[in-house]
Amino acid sequence: MFREFVNRQEELKTLEELWSGEGLTLVLVYGRRRVGKTRLLEEFSRGKKRIFVIFEDKPREYNFRLLSKRVSDFVGFNVEVHDLPSLFALLKGLSSERILLILDEFSYLIKKDGGILSELSRAIEENRDLNALVIVSGSYVSLLEREFFSYSSPIYGRSDANIKVQPLQFKNLFEWFDASTEDLVKIYSVTGGTPKYLEFFSGRNVEEEIRANFFNSSAFLFREARALLSEELRELSTYLAILEAIARGNTKVTQIANFCYMKENQVVPYLRVLGELGIVRKVTPLFGKKGIYEIADNYFLFWSRFVNPYYEEIEGNFVEAAIEDFDRNFNTFLGKPFEGIAREFMIEANRKNVLPFRFTKIGRWWHRGEEIDLVALNENSKKALFVEVKWSDLTSREAEKVLKRLEKKGELVGLEDYEKHFGIIAKRIEEKENLDLAFDLRDFERILPGERKEKV
Fold first, then answer.
1. pTM of the full predicted structure?
2. Which CATH architecture does the domain made up of 342-447 adopt?
């Protein structure tokens, strides 16, 4: 299902500003696979004088044949490109008019030929008077960050701008779908805002769409996680076990190691690699040092919890156990992604001055078994807002009880000289107007969306 281009205004604005300049400009555009980098570049380059090549995970010779074909189409005669300095020299001799050169999935070239970065650096050095915007794009995030941002890299300091393309935020789904906010939460909780994954959903009968997309051996989203991990990692089974451990609530190194029958010092390097890939992150509490690990991407979180444990069964078309687990536990699972969505809501509410004060820091707090989902602070004015997040339908009385428990937990945080406020965010709260700081999905509809998707 093809969808309209949604929410890349800041990236487009940056690229247009760079295009409006003169001389040789190098830009790095990078981000995880499926996040929409190529679509962004297609949108930006439309109507411009461009050479657009998408490299493949194949030898250098193959990719330079691809590049030669695109350059030949551009110049109108056959050209064989063997290296980047000669390409830049050729383009410089063609015209003084600004040229757009897009080298998409350039990280494949880096993987196959470590010398390509020195070659790119030399091409820039020898052709500084080339009037072109050169965009290097790729999906191997850790590789590109290491090569472009490391002082020892030959390309260090050469890029004029670095654009990391992130998944869409929850609020962007209001532009994408004509669906209830509750259904948008469900979609976001299994896709993480990755545009490619969103395309498999219509927003109608969402839970049935989830079953069809994840518990069907021929479905793209069923196989995607393993395919991505297989491209990046060896010892796939170990990484899958670690992800399942975290998805099932084992967030400390000791817990993860026990779940995987490993030693703690064996687990840490795997967690570091998953962190470099942007799949796992380490989270530390406000005012604390000891962190926990969690899956940063909702798609991998859902897949690791509900699909991977039953992968062979689903592949063999024996899906009953997986679907039974999903039907029984999906609503509980939504609590974790909803915390992330609530954080986004808080940040937007802060921008729109909906809260008692403007906060400058937001995070989580936990200590000795007690936890507060969101703590927002303004350390200058010494004000604090503690928020409990519940993926539940609550009566006004139930919400009041939650807030009273929250006040007791708030005392454990310290901050004695702070002005304290207490709030709750839930799926739905009856008579919430009787409470001071109570928000539910109706407030999300009011505060988050830019423009809602019109019914077709």
1. 0.87
2. 3-Layer(aba) Sandwich (3.40)
